[in-house]
Amino acid sequence: MSTTPKVSTSSTASSRNGPRVYKIVILGEGGVGKSALVIQFVSHRFTDYHDPTIEDSYQQQARIDGEPAQLDILDTAGQLEFTTVREQYMRHGEGFILCYSITDRRSFDELLAHKNLIDRVRCNENTPIIVAGNKCDLEQKRKVSTEEGRRLAEQLGAPFFETSAVNRQCVDDVFHGIVREVRQKEYDELVESERLAKKRLRKKRMHALFSRLNIFKRKSPTASSGD
Ligand SMILES: Nc1nc2c(ncn2[C@@H]2O[C@H](COP(=O)(O)OP(=O)(O)O)[C@@H](O)[C@H]2O)c(=O)[nH]1
Ligand SMILES: [Mg+2]
Prior knowledge:
Blueprint: E1 20-27, H1 34-43, E2 56-64, E3 67-75, H2 84-92, E4 95-101, H3 105-109, H4 111-122, E5 129-134, H5 146-155, E6 160-162, H6 171-225
Parallel strand pairs: 1-3, 1-4, 4-5, 5-6
Antiparallel strand pairs: 2-3
């Protein structure tokens, strides 16, 4: 495993040779369980220790709502500073998992800073995201209520799950959910572009009709003068 994430700028459109690739990035403060969640999703096991400085990508195929998908997941190291590499993956990521730990209020409070960073780099607020409140198996150490998590997600317009990388609770929901969000955005964009195309076509037809009417109007006085 390398310490430098591999950020590809190639098209992610569905290829004839395999399923559509979805570039997913998981963000959040160090120690919230980002690596544990990714490894649980990909390898079906819980890792108690994962080097916190390692940023690496993982590939996993899944069938989501009957459609195959290849998830290309970048597990980040949690810092908020701007670097060229970070800017690159923020730009090329298609869906973002914002992760905090329910046992750590600071990680929850920091989530908005991660969201703002995404918006700043991408210059829009329309990026598909999902919120994951991890370590929900540690109920006795809870510092952030489920309601607070739900409200934050609502504020960000994102789905919300409380997860546990230990017992795999809602792990699939989060990774499948972010693919659903990306698909939904693509569908909305397609519907919007079809609407605009139809509008343009209607305008063009009206224009052609009016031009013809104008020709008739111009022709009619000449026709009458010939009488
Ligand atoms: N109890 C519990 N511990 C977790 C969970 N997820 C991660 N951990 C532990 O939290 C620590 C940090 O996890 P890690 O995945 O390295 O966090 P990262 O820095 O966000 O990648 C490790 O000791 C993990 O074993 C979880 O869902 N429940
Ligand atoms: Mg990690």
